[in-house]
Amino acid sequence: MTDSSQAPRQFYIHGVTNAGKVFRPSDWAERLAGAMSSFRPGAPRGGGIGAFIGYSPYCVPQVVDGVRCVLVNEALRDIEPMAWDFVMDFARDNDLPVAEVCVLPDVAPPKKS
Fold first, then answer.
1. What is the pLDDT of residues 8-37, one digit of tens each?
2. Residue 10 contacts residue 73 (beta carbons within 8 Å)
3. What is the value of pTM for the model shown?
4. Digit-coded pLDDT (tens) for 43-69
5. What is the rounded distance in angstroms from the CA atom of residue 79 to the CA atom of residue 102?
6. How far is CA 30 from CA 8, 13, 58, 104, in A?
7. What is residue 24's DSSP assignment?
8. CA–CA separation, 15 vs 2, rounded Å?
9. Domain CATH code at residue 39
10. Is residue 76 part of a domain?
11. What's the total number of domains in the chain?
């Protein structure tokens, strides 16, 4: 469980294996995020008729520096531990690196003098 006093961490699953090969198929990130689409705030467990079309905010495909990735929010673990395990096991089983995202705090721009 995440500590409720701090924001959940976020992780990237990187689409280049630890051996340096681009992971295939080319739409793997969209497929993985699509499988997690029903896990969202306020969604009924198990999806069904109340499920939405679109990606969950907890598992989003992205392209970073030209490489397909999936951004996974640790809050997914609190919502559905088996979904979190599925995503992390997918990365491990396919030799895909997982790295915590460094989120910088919001800082007001300097005032012009």
1. 899 999 999 999 999 999 999 999 999 998
2. yes
3. 0.76
4. 555 555 555 568 889 999 999 999 999
5. 22
6. 22, 12, 13, 26
7. S
8. 26
9. 3.30.70.2340
10. yes
11. 1
